[in-house]
Amino acid sequence: MVANRGEIACRIIRSAREMGIETTVIHSQCDDDSLAVRLADNAVEVGPPPASKSYLDIQAIVNAAIDHEIDAIHPGYGFLAENAKFAEAVEDAGKLFVGPDSQTIRLMGDKLAARETAKKAGVPIAEGSQSRLDSLEEMCTVAKEAGYPVLIKASAGGGGRGIRIANNQDELKRLAPQARAEAQATFGDGTLFVEKYIPQARHIEVQILGDGSEVIHCYERECSLQRRRQKVWEEAPALVLTDEIREKICASAVTLAEHVNYRGAGTVEFLYDESTEEFFFLEMNTRIQVEHPVTEMICGLDLIREMILIAQGSPLCLKQDEIRIRGHAIECRINAENPDQDFMPSPGTAESVTFPAGPGVRFDTMLFPGCNIPPYYDSMIGKLVVWDGSREAALSRLRRALSELEIEGIHTTKSLHQALVENGDVIALNIHTGFLEQWLSRRQSFHNR
Ligand code: ADP
Ligand code: ADP
Ligand code: MG
Asked: Among all ligands shown, which has an atom nearest to the Cα of 114?
Protein backbone atom coordinates (compact mmCIF):
# COMPACT_ATOMS: atom_id res chain seq x y z
CA MET A 1 0.00 0.00 0.00
CA VAL A 2 1.23 3.44 -0.92
CA ALA A 3 0.30 6.01 1.73
CA ASN A 4 0.99 9.06 -0.40
CA ARG A 5 -0.04 10.87 -3.58
CA GLY A 6 1.40 12.62 -6.61
CA GLU A 7 4.56 11.67 -8.43
CA ILE A 8 6.05 9.69 -5.55
CA ALA A 9 2.97 7.44 -5.33
CA CYS A 10 3.38 6.68 -9.08
CA ARG A 11 7.11 6.14 -8.59
CA ILE A 12 6.58 3.56 -5.80
CA ILE A 13 3.80 1.74 -7.68
CA ARG A 14 6.11 1.34 -10.69
CA SER A 15 8.90 -0.35 -8.71
CA ALA A 16 6.46 -2.55 -6.82
CA ARG A 17 4.87 -3.74 -10.08
CA GLU A 18 8.28 -4.61 -11.53
CA MET A 19 8.84 -6.73 -8.41
CA GLY A 20 5.51 -8.53 -8.96
CA ILE A 21 3.90 -6.90 -5.94
CA GLU A 22 0.18 -6.03 -6.04
CA THR A 23 -0.37 -2.34 -5.26
CA THR A 24 -3.07 -0.38 -3.47
CA VAL A 25 -2.93 3.39 -3.25
CA ILE A 26 -4.79 5.54 -0.77
CA HIS A 27 -6.37 8.77 -1.98
CA SER A 28 -8.48 11.66 -0.81
CA GLN A 29 -11.85 12.53 -2.38
CA CYS A 30 -10.29 15.02 -4.82
CA ASP A 31 -7.62 12.56 -5.99
CA ASP A 32 -10.05 9.86 -7.14
CA ASP A 33 -8.92 10.24 -10.76
CA SER A 34 -5.19 10.72 -10.13
CA LEU A 35 -2.46 9.02 -12.16
CA ALA A 36 -1.49 6.98 -9.08
CA VAL A 37 -5.08 5.70 -8.83
CA ARG A 38 -4.95 4.78 -12.52
CA LEU A 39 -1.60 2.99 -12.17
CA ALA A 40 -2.31 1.02 -8.99
CA ASP A 41 -4.10 -2.34 -8.92
CA ASN A 42 -6.45 -1.04 -6.23
CA ALA A 43 -7.36 2.33 -4.77
CA VAL A 44 -9.00 3.21 -1.48
CA GLU A 45 -10.46 6.55 -0.45
CA VAL A 46 -9.44 7.57 3.05
CA GLY A 47 -11.12 10.95 3.48
CA PRO A 48 -11.93 14.46 2.25
CA PRO A 49 -9.38 16.73 0.49
CA PRO A 50 -7.67 18.46 3.45
CA ALA A 51 -4.53 16.42 4.22
CA SER A 52 -5.31 16.41 7.95
CA LYS A 53 -8.48 14.42 7.16
CA SER A 54 -6.96 12.01 4.62
CA TYR A 55 -3.20 11.67 3.94
CA LEU A 56 -2.40 12.56 7.56
CA ASP A 57 -5.19 10.52 9.16
CA ILE A 58 -3.22 7.67 10.75
CA GLN A 59 -6.27 5.74 11.93
CA ALA A 60 -8.07 5.95 8.58
CA ILE A 61 -4.96 4.73 6.72
CA VAL A 62 -4.23 1.87 9.13
CA ASN A 63 -7.89 0.82 9.03
CA ALA A 64 -7.76 0.77 5.23
CA ALA A 65 -4.63 -1.40 5.39
CA ILE A 66 -6.38 -3.86 7.72
CA ASP A 67 -9.59 -3.93 5.66
CA HIS A 68 -7.69 -4.54 2.43
CA GLU A 69 -5.36 -7.14 3.97
CA ILE A 70 -2.28 -5.17 3.01
CA ASP A 71 1.17 -6.62 3.85
CA ALA A 72 3.31 -3.48 3.79
CA ILE A 73 3.00 0.31 3.66
CA HIS A 74 5.36 2.66 1.84
CA PRO A 75 4.95 6.22 3.16
CA GLY A 76 6.82 8.10 0.37
CA TYR A 77 8.05 11.56 1.48
CA GLY A 78 6.26 14.38 3.29
CA PHE A 79 2.92 13.60 5.00
CA LEU A 80 3.49 10.73 7.48
CA ALA A 81 6.85 9.54 6.14
CA GLU A 82 8.80 10.69 9.21
CA ASN A 83 6.03 10.34 11.75
CA ALA A 84 7.08 7.83 14.43
CA LYS A 85 3.46 7.45 15.62
CA PHE A 86 2.43 6.34 12.15
CA ALA A 87 5.29 3.83 11.89
CA GLU A 88 4.29 2.52 15.32
CA ALA A 89 0.61 2.21 14.35
CA VAL A 90 1.64 0.28 11.22
CA GLU A 91 3.87 -2.01 13.32
CA ASP A 92 1.08 -2.50 15.89
CA ALA A 93 -1.30 -3.50 13.11
CA GLY A 94 1.17 -6.24 12.16
CA LYS A 95 2.10 -4.64 8.84
CA LEU A 96 5.55 -3.91 7.45
CA PHE A 97 6.55 -0.25 7.40
CA VAL A 98 8.84 0.41 4.44
CA GLY A 99 11.34 2.47 6.38
CA PRO A 100 13.20 2.32 9.68
CA ASP A 101 11.40 1.27 12.86
CA SER A 102 9.51 3.85 14.90
CA GLN A 103 12.31 4.10 17.51
CA THR A 104 14.87 5.07 14.86
CA ILE A 105 12.49 7.63 13.40
CA ARG A 106 12.00 9.08 16.87
CA LEU A 107 15.75 9.24 17.42
CA MET A 108 16.77 10.70 14.05
CA GLY A 109 13.60 12.51 12.92
CA ASP A 110 13.93 14.99 15.76
CA LYS A 111 16.71 17.46 14.90
CA LEU A 112 17.90 17.95 18.49
CA ALA A 113 18.04 14.23 19.22
CA ALA A 114 19.86 13.72 15.91
CA ARG A 115 22.44 16.40 16.80
CA GLU A 116 23.04 14.52 20.04
CA THR A 117 23.48 11.23 18.17
CA ALA A 118 25.84 12.89 15.65
CA LYS A 119 27.93 14.30 18.46
CA LYS A 120 28.20 10.85 20.09
CA ALA A 121 29.14 9.29 16.76
CA GLY A 122 31.91 11.86 16.28
CA VAL A 123 30.25 13.52 13.27
CA PRO A 124 30.87 17.31 13.14
CA ILE A 125 27.86 19.52 13.91
CA ALA A 126 27.45 23.31 13.65
CA GLU A 127 27.94 25.21 16.88
CA GLY A 128 24.75 25.72 18.85
CA SER A 129 22.46 24.24 21.49
CA GLN A 130 22.72 20.65 22.66
CA SER A 131 19.31 20.71 24.32
CA ARG A 132 15.91 22.37 23.94
CA LEU A 133 15.78 26.06 24.74
CA ASP A 134 12.66 26.93 26.69
CA SER A 135 13.43 30.50 27.68
CA LEU A 136 14.59 33.53 25.71
CA GLU A 137 17.46 34.00 28.15
CA GLU A 138 18.80 30.50 27.43
CA MET A 139 18.55 31.20 23.69
CA CYS A 140 20.44 34.48 24.01
CA THR A 141 23.22 32.79 25.99
CA VAL A 142 23.69 29.99 23.43
CA ALA A 143 23.49 32.44 20.50
CA LYS A 144 26.10 34.70 22.06
CA GLU A 145 28.46 31.76 22.58
CA ALA A 146 28.01 30.52 18.99
CA GLY A 147 28.19 34.06 17.59
CA TYR A 148 25.63 35.87 15.42
CA PRO A 149 24.04 35.39 12.94
CA VAL A 150 22.25 32.28 14.21
CA LEU A 151 19.34 30.23 12.97
CA ILE A 152 16.38 29.54 15.19
CA LYS A 153 15.19 26.05 14.27
CA ALA A 154 12.24 23.86 15.13
CA SER A 155 13.38 20.47 16.41
CA ALA A 156 10.44 18.84 14.63
CA GLY A 157 10.91 20.95 11.49
CA GLY A 158 10.97 19.90 7.85
CA GLY A 159 10.42 21.30 4.37
CA GLY A 160 12.29 24.49 5.32
CA ARG A 161 9.53 25.55 7.73
CA GLY A 162 10.00 26.90 11.24
CA ILE A 163 13.48 28.34 10.49
CA ARG A 164 14.35 32.02 11.24
CA ILE A 165 17.65 33.88 10.92
CA ALA A 166 18.63 36.27 13.73
CA ASN A 167 21.50 38.73 13.16
CA ASN A 168 21.57 40.03 16.73
CA GLN A 169 19.99 39.64 20.14
CA ASP A 170 17.10 42.01 19.41
CA GLU A 171 16.13 40.00 16.34
CA LEU A 172 16.43 36.77 18.29
CA LYS A 173 14.05 38.07 20.96
CA ARG A 174 11.59 39.26 18.33
CA LEU A 175 11.70 36.15 16.07
CA ALA A 176 11.87 33.31 18.61
CA PRO A 177 8.20 33.60 19.69
CA GLN A 178 7.14 33.63 16.01
CA ALA A 179 9.24 30.55 15.27
CA ARG A 180 7.78 28.77 18.30
CA ALA A 181 4.20 29.58 17.26
CA GLU A 182 4.84 28.41 13.67
CA ALA A 183 6.48 25.18 14.85
CA GLN A 184 3.61 24.50 17.24
CA ALA A 185 1.02 25.13 14.52
CA THR A 186 2.86 23.23 11.73
CA PHE A 187 4.40 20.30 13.58
CA GLY A 188 2.42 20.24 16.83
CA ASP A 189 5.69 20.74 18.71
CA GLY A 190 7.16 24.14 19.59
CA THR A 191 10.58 22.85 20.70
CA LEU A 192 13.30 25.21 19.43
CA PHE A 193 17.08 25.29 19.31
CA VAL A 194 19.72 27.65 17.99
CA GLU A 195 22.47 26.88 15.48
CA LYS A 196 25.28 29.05 14.15
CA TYR A 197 24.47 30.35 10.66
CA ILE A 198 27.03 29.23 8.07
CA PRO A 199 26.96 31.76 5.23
CA GLN A 200 27.59 30.92 1.57
CA ALA A 201 27.65 27.21 2.33
CA ARG A 202 26.65 24.37 0.06
CA HIS A 203 24.00 21.80 0.87
CA ILE A 204 25.59 18.38 0.37
CA GLU A 205 23.75 15.20 1.35
CA VAL A 206 24.67 11.54 1.35
CA GLN A 207 22.32 8.73 0.34
CA ILE A 208 22.66 5.68 2.54
CA LEU A 209 21.16 2.19 2.68
CA GLY A 210 21.20 -0.02 5.76
CA ASP A 211 19.88 -3.49 6.56
CA GLY A 212 20.17 -3.28 10.36
CA SER A 213 23.67 -4.72 10.48
CA GLU A 214 25.52 -3.12 7.57
CA VAL A 215 25.35 0.38 6.08
CA ILE A 216 26.55 1.48 2.64
CA HIS A 217 26.43 4.86 0.92
CA CYS A 218 25.44 5.71 -2.65
CA TYR A 219 27.53 8.88 -2.75
CA GLU A 220 26.29 12.44 -2.51
CA ARG A 221 24.03 15.08 -4.05
CA GLU A 222 24.42 18.84 -4.13
CA CYS A 223 21.17 20.70 -3.40
CA SER A 224 22.32 24.30 -2.91
CA LEU A 225 19.77 25.93 -5.23
CA GLN A 226 16.96 26.61 -2.78
CA ARG A 227 14.06 28.99 -2.30
CA ARG A 228 12.76 29.47 1.24
CA ARG A 229 15.20 26.69 2.29
CA GLN A 230 13.42 24.24 -0.05
CA LYS A 231 15.42 22.63 -2.82
CA VAL A 232 14.45 23.45 -6.40
CA TRP A 233 17.37 21.93 -8.40
CA GLU A 234 19.59 19.02 -7.36
CA GLU A 235 22.62 17.29 -8.87
CA ALA A 236 24.80 14.25 -8.37
CA PRO A 237 27.67 13.98 -7.82
CA ALA A 238 28.71 17.20 -6.03
CA LEU A 239 31.58 18.27 -8.24
CA VAL A 240 32.81 20.82 -5.67
CA LEU A 241 34.14 17.96 -3.53
CA THR A 242 37.61 16.53 -3.95
CA ASP A 243 37.77 12.73 -3.86
CA GLU A 244 39.30 12.97 -0.40
CA ILE A 245 36.47 15.09 1.04
CA ARG A 246 33.89 12.98 -0.79
CA GLU A 247 35.19 9.86 0.97
CA LYS A 248 35.24 11.70 4.31
CA ILE A 249 31.69 13.06 4.12
CA CYS A 250 30.30 9.73 2.89
CA ALA A 251 32.15 7.89 5.68
CA SER A 252 30.64 10.30 8.25
CA ALA A 253 27.14 9.54 6.98
CA VAL A 254 27.80 5.80 7.21
CA THR A 255 29.23 6.16 10.74
CA LEU A 256 26.13 8.02 11.89
CA ALA A 257 23.76 5.46 10.35
CA GLU A 258 25.77 2.56 11.80
CA HIS A 259 25.56 4.21 15.21
CA VAL A 260 21.78 3.65 15.18
CA ASN A 261 21.90 0.28 13.32
CA TYR A 262 20.00 1.95 10.52
CA ARG A 263 17.59 -0.12 8.46
CA GLY A 264 16.18 1.32 5.23
CA ALA A 265 17.06 4.15 2.87
CA GLY A 266 18.02 7.46 4.42
CA THR A 267 19.77 10.72 3.75
CA VAL A 268 22.31 12.47 5.93
CA GLU A 269 22.35 16.20 5.19
CA PHE A 270 25.39 18.44 5.65
CA LEU A 271 26.43 22.02 5.06
CA TYR A 272 29.80 22.30 3.37
CA ASP A 273 32.01 25.35 3.72
CA GLU A 274 34.25 25.46 0.67
CA SER A 275 36.62 28.07 2.11
CA THR A 276 37.64 25.85 5.02
CA GLU A 277 36.71 22.46 3.52
CA GLU A 278 34.70 21.77 6.68
CA PHE A 279 31.32 20.07 6.77
CA PHE A 280 28.64 20.09 9.45
CA PHE A 281 25.78 17.66 10.05
CA LEU A 282 22.35 19.27 9.54
CA GLU A 283 19.79 16.50 9.89
CA MET A 284 18.92 12.99 8.84
CA ASN A 285 15.86 12.22 6.73
CA THR A 286 14.66 8.71 7.53
CA ARG A 287 12.78 8.24 4.25
CA ILE A 288 13.09 8.37 0.49
CA GLN A 289 13.89 11.89 -0.62
CA VAL A 290 12.40 13.95 -3.45
CA GLU A 291 15.75 14.13 -5.25
CA HIS A 292 16.57 10.40 -5.06
CA PRO A 293 16.47 9.97 -8.90
CA VAL A 294 19.78 11.79 -9.46
CA THR A 295 21.48 9.15 -7.30
CA GLU A 296 19.66 6.38 -9.16
CA MET A 297 20.88 7.81 -12.47
CA ILE A 298 24.58 8.01 -11.53
CA CYS A 299 24.69 4.73 -9.58
CA GLY A 300 22.35 2.65 -11.76
CA LEU A 301 20.07 1.72 -8.86
CA ASP A 302 16.38 1.58 -8.00
CA LEU A 303 16.25 2.92 -4.44
CA ILE A 304 12.54 2.13 -3.97
CA ARG A 305 13.24 -1.48 -4.86
CA GLU A 306 16.11 -1.57 -2.36
CA MET A 307 13.79 -0.12 0.32
CA ILE A 308 11.17 -2.80 -0.32
CA LEU A 309 13.76 -5.60 -0.26
CA ILE A 310 15.16 -4.31 3.04
CA ALA A 311 11.64 -4.10 4.53
CA GLN A 312 11.10 -7.73 3.50
CA GLY A 313 14.12 -8.62 5.61
CA SER A 314 16.69 -9.17 2.88
CA PRO A 315 20.29 -8.27 3.59
CA LEU A 316 21.77 -5.54 1.36
CA CYS A 317 22.28 -7.00 -2.10
CA LEU A 318 25.05 -4.56 -2.99
CA LYS A 319 28.54 -4.19 -1.57
CA GLN A 320 30.10 -0.77 -1.13
CA ASP A 321 32.69 -1.35 -3.85
CA GLU A 322 29.94 -2.27 -6.33
CA ILE A 323 28.54 1.25 -6.12
CA ARG A 324 30.31 3.55 -8.55
CA ILE A 325 29.57 7.00 -9.91
CA ARG A 326 29.00 7.16 -13.65
CA GLY A 327 28.39 10.51 -15.38
CA HIS A 328 26.31 13.37 -14.02
CA ALA A 329 22.60 13.86 -13.27
CA ILE A 330 20.49 16.98 -12.67
CA GLU A 331 16.90 17.26 -11.40
CA CYS A 332 14.59 20.27 -11.75
CA ARG A 333 11.49 20.40 -9.56
CA ILE A 334 8.55 21.51 -11.71
CA ASN A 335 6.03 23.20 -9.42
CA ALA A 336 2.54 24.49 -10.22
CA GLU A 337 3.52 28.03 -9.23
CA ASN A 338 3.85 31.35 -11.01
CA PRO A 339 7.46 32.57 -10.77
CA ASP A 340 6.36 36.00 -12.01
CA GLN A 341 3.99 36.39 -9.06
CA ASP A 342 6.28 35.48 -6.20
CA PHE A 343 5.72 31.76 -6.87
CA MET A 344 2.03 31.93 -6.08
CA PRO A 345 0.52 28.42 -6.28
CA SER A 346 -1.27 27.80 -9.58
CA PRO A 347 -3.70 24.90 -9.16
CA GLY A 348 -6.16 24.04 -11.94
CA THR A 349 -6.42 21.78 -14.96
CA ALA A 350 -3.39 20.91 -17.06
CA GLU A 351 -5.29 21.08 -20.36
CA SER A 352 -2.51 19.62 -22.42
CA VAL A 353 0.95 18.33 -21.63
CA THR A 354 3.93 17.32 -23.75
CA PHE A 355 6.58 15.33 -21.93
CA PRO A 356 10.27 15.48 -22.77
CA ALA A 357 11.83 12.16 -23.76
CA GLY A 358 14.83 10.78 -25.58
CA PRO A 359 18.23 9.61 -24.37
CA GLY A 360 19.10 10.28 -20.74
CA VAL A 361 15.79 11.98 -19.90
CA ARG A 362 13.41 10.91 -17.15
CA PHE A 363 10.26 12.81 -16.17
CA ASP A 364 8.72 11.60 -12.89
CA THR A 365 5.27 13.15 -12.75
CA MET A 366 1.65 12.83 -11.78
CA LEU A 367 0.53 14.79 -14.85
CA PHE A 368 -1.58 13.56 -17.77
CA PRO A 369 -3.57 15.63 -20.27
CA GLY A 370 -6.65 17.07 -18.60
CA CYS A 371 -5.57 16.18 -15.06
CA ASN A 372 -6.58 18.34 -12.16
CA ILE A 373 -4.03 19.87 -9.75
CA PRO A 374 -5.92 20.37 -6.48
CA PRO A 375 -5.07 23.39 -4.31
CA TYR A 376 -4.72 21.37 -1.09
CA TYR A 377 -1.24 19.89 -1.37
CA ASP A 378 2.41 20.61 -2.15
CA SER A 379 2.76 22.34 -5.52
CA MET A 380 5.38 19.97 -6.96
CA ILE A 381 3.90 18.23 -10.02
CA GLY A 382 6.93 16.72 -11.67
CA LYS A 383 10.67 16.24 -11.63
CA LEU A 384 12.65 16.57 -14.81
CA VAL A 385 15.81 14.47 -14.47
CA VAL A 386 18.59 14.27 -17.03
CA TRP A 387 21.73 12.17 -17.16
CA ASP A 388 24.80 12.37 -19.38
CA GLY A 389 28.49 11.52 -19.26
CA SER A 390 29.60 14.92 -17.93
CA ARG A 391 27.97 17.91 -16.23
CA GLU A 392 28.41 20.00 -19.33
CA ALA A 393 26.63 17.43 -21.47
CA ALA A 394 23.90 17.06 -18.82
CA LEU A 395 23.30 20.83 -18.94
CA SER A 396 22.87 20.70 -22.73
CA ARG A 397 20.49 17.81 -22.37
CA LEU A 398 18.56 19.71 -19.69
CA ARG A 399 18.20 22.72 -22.03
CA ARG A 400 16.88 20.46 -24.74
CA ALA A 401 14.48 18.60 -22.41
CA LEU A 402 13.11 21.82 -20.87
CA SER A 403 12.36 23.14 -24.35
CA GLU A 404 10.29 20.01 -25.08
CA LEU A 405 8.26 20.25 -21.87
CA GLU A 406 4.88 21.96 -22.43
CA ILE A 407 2.21 22.26 -19.77
CA GLU A 408 -0.85 24.32 -20.69
CA GLY A 409 -3.58 25.61 -18.39
CA ILE A 410 -1.50 26.28 -15.27
CA HIS A 411 1.64 28.27 -14.48
CA THR A 412 4.76 26.27 -13.71
CA THR A 413 8.37 26.86 -12.69
CA LYS A 414 9.68 25.68 -16.07
CA SER A 415 10.66 29.27 -16.91
CA LEU A 416 12.71 29.53 -13.69
CA HIS A 417 14.68 26.45 -14.71
CA GLN A 418 15.14 27.76 -18.25
CA ALA A 419 16.68 30.90 -16.76
CA LEU A 420 18.84 28.92 -14.33
CA VAL A 421 20.24 26.61 -16.99
CA GLU A 422 21.50 29.70 -18.89
CA ASN A 423 22.91 31.41 -15.80
CA GLY A 424 26.69 31.81 -15.81
CA ASP A 425 27.09 31.08 -12.11
CA VAL A 426 24.92 27.96 -12.30
CA ILE A 427 26.86 26.78 -15.35
CA ALA A 428 30.13 27.38 -13.46
CA LEU A 429 28.64 25.74 -10.33
CA ASN A 430 29.44 28.93 -8.48
CA ILE A 431 26.48 28.64 -6.06
CA HIS A 432 25.53 28.43 -2.37
CA THR A 433 22.31 28.02 -0.37
CA GLY A 434 21.56 31.77 -0.52
CA PHE A 435 22.35 32.13 -4.24
CA LEU A 436 18.91 31.62 -5.75
CA GLU A 437 17.08 34.04 -3.45
CA GLN A 438 19.71 36.73 -4.02
CA TRP A 439 19.43 36.24 -7.75
CA LEU A 440 15.62 36.24 -7.64
CA SER A 441 15.55 39.51 -5.71
CA ARG A 442 17.50 41.18 -8.55
CA ARG A 443 15.44 39.71 -11.35
CA GLN A 444 12.26 41.34 -12.69
CA SER A 445 10.45 38.71 -14.72
CA PHE A 446 10.70 35.25 -16.22
CA HIS A 447 8.45 36.05 -19.17
CA ASN A 448 6.55 33.02 -18.03
CA ARG A 449 5.51 30.88 -20.94
P1 ADP B 1 13.55 16.77 0.48
O2 ADP B 1 14.99 16.95 0.67
O3 ADP B 1 13.13 15.37 0.21
O4 ADP B 1 12.96 17.76 -0.44
P5 ADP B 1 12.05 18.22 2.39
O6 ADP B 1 12.35 18.36 3.83
O7 ADP B 1 12.17 19.44 1.56
O8 ADP B 1 12.99 17.08 1.89
O9 ADP B 1 10.60 17.62 2.27
C10 ADP B 1 10.12 16.78 1.23
C11 ADP B 1 8.66 17.04 0.98
O12 ADP B 1 7.90 16.83 2.13
C13 ADP B 1 8.39 18.44 0.52
O14 ADP B 1 7.38 18.37 -0.45
C15 ADP B 1 7.93 19.13 1.78
O16 ADP B 1 7.02 20.17 1.46
C17 ADP B 1 7.28 18.01 2.52
N18 ADP B 1 7.48 18.09 3.97
C19 ADP B 1 8.62 17.91 4.65
N20 ADP B 1 8.41 17.96 5.97
C21 ADP B 1 7.11 18.19 6.14
C22 ADP B 1 6.27 18.31 7.28
N23 ADP B 1 6.75 18.24 8.51
N24 ADP B 1 4.97 18.53 7.09
C25 ADP B 1 4.48 18.59 5.83
N26 ADP B 1 5.21 18.46 4.73
C27 ADP B 1 6.50 18.26 4.87
P1 ADP C 1 14.60 21.08 6.90
O2 ADP C 1 14.25 19.99 7.85
O3 ADP C 1 13.57 22.12 6.83
O4 ADP C 1 15.06 20.55 5.59
P5 ADP C 1 17.42 21.68 7.43
O6 ADP C 1 18.05 21.72 8.77
O7 ADP C 1 17.74 20.53 6.58
O8 ADP C 1 15.85 21.82 7.60
O9 ADP C 1 17.81 23.03 6.68
C10 ADP C 1 17.21 23.43 5.48
C11 ADP C 1 18.08 24.45 4.78
O12 ADP C 1 18.29 25.60 5.62
C13 ADP C 1 19.50 23.98 4.46
O14 ADP C 1 19.59 23.25 3.26
C15 ADP C 1 20.25 25.30 4.39
O16 ADP C 1 20.04 25.94 3.17
C17 ADP C 1 19.60 26.10 5.49
N18 ADP C 1 20.33 25.94 6.76
C19 ADP C 1 20.04 25.07 7.75
N20 ADP C 1 20.92 25.18 8.78
C21 ADP C 1 21.80 26.13 8.43
C22 ADP C 1 22.96 26.73 9.07
N23 ADP C 1 23.36 26.36 10.28
N24 ADP C 1 23.60 27.72 8.39
C25 ADP C 1 23.21 28.12 7.16
N26 ADP C 1 22.13 27.60 6.54
C27 ADP C 1 21.43 26.63 7.14
MG1 MG D 1 16.65 19.24 5.30
From this structure: 2
